[in-house]
Each structure stands twice: as C-alpha cells, then as structure tokens.
C-alpha cells in the first residue's frame, strides 16, 4: 500500500511538470507497465484529481482543471483530521504557529479537489482566543529539539528545576513526548548515566550541538510510558492507607488505578492505598467517598483529617449564616 501511494505521488508530480505525457513515457519513468499506468490514473480520478486521456496516435494523459495542484493525496478522514488540527491546534501548548497554521489551511483549501474542498468549507471552526498555557513551548524551540533527536546529536542546555534552581545538562536526546499542555524531552543524562525526562519549557539549549551518538535501547514501555511514570512520581509525594467502612463493590467505581488501589477486607469494609501531593490533600479528598473511615497509615494523616474536619465545620457555619440572612427577608 505504501509503495502504491508513493507511486501515485510520483505520477501526479510528473503530470504537473509538462502538459502532455504518453502512457509509454509515464511507464518508462515510473518503471511500470502501461496497464499499471492506466490503473494508477483511474485511482487518481477516484481521489478527485482531474486526469484527461486522449486515444490514438499522439494520445496520452494530461491534468485537467487544477493542473497546478501539488502532489497531495489525502482521503476524506485525513482531510478532516488536518483541517481540525490546523484550526484548533494553534493555541495551548505551542506558540508561534498561529499565522502559519492559517496559511497552511488556506493553501490546503486551494489545492484540494472540489469534493474534498467542500468538506473543508463545512469544517470552519471558530476558536476562542486565550492566553497560551504557562508551560507553552515556542515552535522554534520545539523544532530545534526535535531536530537533534532525529539527527542523534548530543544536546547541552541550561535547565530550570521545579524549585527554581538552574543547572547545565548534557544529554543524548531521544524523544519528544506531550502530556496535556506540557512537552517533555526523554534523554540519556550523560552526567547521571541514566534516563531522565525534562520539561521543554524549562530548557534553554546551547549552540552548537554536540557530536553524534549511537542510539541506546529505550526503557521498557517506550518514551511515553517512561515520561508518564516520571510525572506520577512528581505528583505523588506521600502515600497513605485507609480503611473505608463500605463494601468493596460500592467503592470500586470511585478509585482510578492511576492514583489508588483497593482491596476487600470483609463484607462491609475495604482498604484503599492512595497517593497525593501532601497529607492535607489526601485528608480533604477522603471526604469525597462520603463514608466513615479509619486511618491505618501513616499516623500523621489523622491530624491532617482533624484539620480538614475543622475546615468543613467552618464552611458549614458560613453556609448556615448565608442561608439565614437570605431567609430573613
């Protein structure tokens, strides 16, 4: 399939280079038979590209209206994907591509066959302008990091850590990974001799780049899973285990496996092991279960729960006062 698609692109390119081609000439250039040329021409027509044919002496093929089209072959679903991406993907995690996305979409509309152009016209999307995410990355920086990953060249950069500290790093860059509105570089840290992930928005690459390197085998699960585990470690700074006074089956739908595990204890109790950024956040979150519970570990969570309870009492009194004032009229 890939070979056929590449051949169709070459055929379309040839048809653009001059007005008329004979079937024999095209077959010779593409190193295929004239019968295959006819089949490929039919495929171009099925895709909506106008290819005219003449028979007899001096007959051959030429592009009809739209002869200046570039060699672009997209099916309906691919057109939808490209149009939506160009119209709605210019904001958020990447900056500096808004105008370029608009120009690319205009060119795409101009060159597509009429059948697909109508699909594009129906897909005009209005995007609510908003400020880029705090972690947004400039397109030029993203492109530069992607280039050294592709070329297997060492990269030096100044890196700003979460606590504000700065350090100079030298790595073998491997993959760019996006998680939500954040971009990460997965790389082999030469100083630490281990795999690391870095927030791209905190990087300031240094030029020139370093020498080329021989790629290593990626960790199990690949780059995306490695970065995902690193993000989870950064979010979960403390863990706890709590006995919930409720049946296991009633709690299961409330516990996502990414941040907690659940086990049955008896018919009326189950235990949850969960993680959070602090004991206070875990204590506040436990209220979401809306059941009685007993702290198993660590003991410090009990005091955090008492503090959360006092905050809930204070909030309840505020609501009561607000309700009484409203009802006094």
Structure characterization notes:
This protein has four domains: 2-63, Arc Repressor Mutant, subunit A, CATH 1.10.10.10; 76-121, no CATH class; 137-235; 238-316, 2-Layer Sandwich (Alpha-Beta Plaits). The chain has 329 residues and is of the alpha+beta class. The mean pLDDT is 83. It has helices at 2-17, 23-30, 34-46, 76-88, 98-111, 114-121, 139-151, 222-235, 248-251, 279-286, 300-327, and strands at residues 51-54, 60-63, 94-95, 137-138, 155-160, 166-179, 182-189, 194-199, 203-206, 238-244, 260-266, 269-276, 293-297. Helix content is 42%, strand content 23%. The protein has eleven helices and 13 strands. The strands form four sheets. It has a five-stranded antiparallel sheet with strand order 8-7-6-5-9. The chain is elongated and about 95 Å long. The protein starts with a helix and ends with a helix. Helix 1 (2-17) packs across helix 3 and helix 5 (98-111) packs antiparallel against helix 6. The longest helix is centred in the last third of the chain and has 28 residues, at 300-327. A hairpin with a 5-residue loop joins strand 5 (155-160) and strand 6.
């Amino acid at each position: 399939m890939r070979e056929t698609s590449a051949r169709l692109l070459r055929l379309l390119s040839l048809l653009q280079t001059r007005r008329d081609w004979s079937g024999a000439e095209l077959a010779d250039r593409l190193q295929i038979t004239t019968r295959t040329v006819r089949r490929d021409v039919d495929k171009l027509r099925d895709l909506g590209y106008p290819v005219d044919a003449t028979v007899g002496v001096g007959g051959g093929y030429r592009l009809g209206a739209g002869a200046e089209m570039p060699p672009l072959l997209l099916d309906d679903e691919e057109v939808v994907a490209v149009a939506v991406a160009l119209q709605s993907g210019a904001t958020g995690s990447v900056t500096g591509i808004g105008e370029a996305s608009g120009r690319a979409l205009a060119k795409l509309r101009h060159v597509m066959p009429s059948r697909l152009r109508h699909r594009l016209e129906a897909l005009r999307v209005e995007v609510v302008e908003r400020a880029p995410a705090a972690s947004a990355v400039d397109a030029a920086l993203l492109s530069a990091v992607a280039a050294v990953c592709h070329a297997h060249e060492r990269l030096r950069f100044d890196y700003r850590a979460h606590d504000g500290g700065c350090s100079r790093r030298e790595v073998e860059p491997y993959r760019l990974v996006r998680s939500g509105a954040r971009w990460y570089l997965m790389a082999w840290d030469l100083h630490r001799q281990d795999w690391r992930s870095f927030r791209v928005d905190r990087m300031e690459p240094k030029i020139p780049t370093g020498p080329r390197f021989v790629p290593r085998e990626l960790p199990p699960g690949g780059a995306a899973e490695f970065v995902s585990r690193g993000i989870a470690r950064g979010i979960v700074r403390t863990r706890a285990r709590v006995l919930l006074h409720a049946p296991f089956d009633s709690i299961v739908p409330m516990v996502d496996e990414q941040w907690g595990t659940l086990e049955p204890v008896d018919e009326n109790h189950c235990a949850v092991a969960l993680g959070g950024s602090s004991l206070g956040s875990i204590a506040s979150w436990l209220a979401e279960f809306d059941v009685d519970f007993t702290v198993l570990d660590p003991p410090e969570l009990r005091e955090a729960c008492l503090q959360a309870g006092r905050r809930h009492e204070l909030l309840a009194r505020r609501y009561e006062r607000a309700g009484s004032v409203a009802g006094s009229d």
